[in-house]
Write a structure and sequence with these properties.
Layout: H1 3-7, H2 12-23, H3 34-54, H4 58-80, E1 84-88, H5 95-102, E2 107-112, H6 114-126, E3 134-138, H7 150-154, E4 163-167, H8 176-190, E5 196-202, H9 212-225, H10 237-246, E6 251-255, E7 276-281
Parallel strand pairs: 1-2, 1-4, 2-3, 4-5
Antiparallel strand pairs: 5-7, 6-7
Helix pairs in contact: 2-3
The structure holds S-adenosylmethionine.
Amino acid sequence: MSERVLHSHISPSAHFTAYVWFRRGLSDAAFVSPFGRFSHTLLRPVMWASRQFFDLDLESMLLLRHLQIDASLHRAIESAGVRQVVEIACGLSPRGYRFTQRYPQLHYIEADLPAMAGRKGQLLAENHWLSPRHHVVSVDVFAEEGPYSLSSAFAQLNHNEPVFVITEGLVNYFSREQIELFWTRLATQLRPFRAASYVTDLYPELQMHPRYRQIRWGVDLVGRLTRGEYYLHYADADAIEAGFKGCGFAEVEVVDPSLRAADLGLPVSTVPGLVRVVHAHM
Ligand SMILES: C[S@@+](CC[C@H](N)C(=O)[O-])C[C@H]1O[C@@H](n2cnc3c(N)ncnc32)[C@H](O)[C@@H]1O
């Protein structure tokens, strides 16, 4: 089985999150698929029970990471003059559409495995949202060389300008060894740029969290639904920082977006945050 086929089991979850972004007013109906709607209906009882009994709201957790990454990108564009964005594992996320509408100066490259990239490109083309400044490329983050490699995607960019790279909903599907391999290769690609930042969400292994048992159960469920495994990475912010530095990033900031929930327009939960957003700079 090829590596690409091996990872494509993750792609269905992109339909679920796309439906969540739409439901919460962040997206256009064009990004919604019948499977996204169906999987959301199927999981509704689980989401209800986890809200009711454990005060864990899956949609709010997804929104925390999504809106925190949005906030970081807004800041990078408005304060640091970023004009080049690469969103890897974009799935059916509307971020590229939203940001290119708001900031016409952006060069926004969306990237995903070939099947998802083809689907996203077609969706954007049908709605007249594709342009030379906003397009979709096929990338397998584990391809060492060839047309789907990171180097092929980054070759399209101006190395004299800053670049901002995003992954969302990707890193916990892979073991730490695999994901650190990707981060090391990404750091190599980012080194020649005048300035480069990478922002990602990450779910750490928070063993002291009051809902740790329920989280482990939820993680196993996600693994089963996506017919793969779902990993939790690093015990705390210091370990995350050390991990990223070990992969070649110079500065690392770990944000708990639940502490910024009110600023992000989201309900403040009584349960400590589960997701972190990592800002890594070269
Ligand atoms: C959970 S979805 C997240 C989609 C989107 N970022 C979001 O938050 O809505 C994970 C995405 O990772 C993509 N993916 C999985 N393995 C990949 C790989 N090896 N290289 C690039 N993308 C990959 C899948 O196709 C899928 O679109």
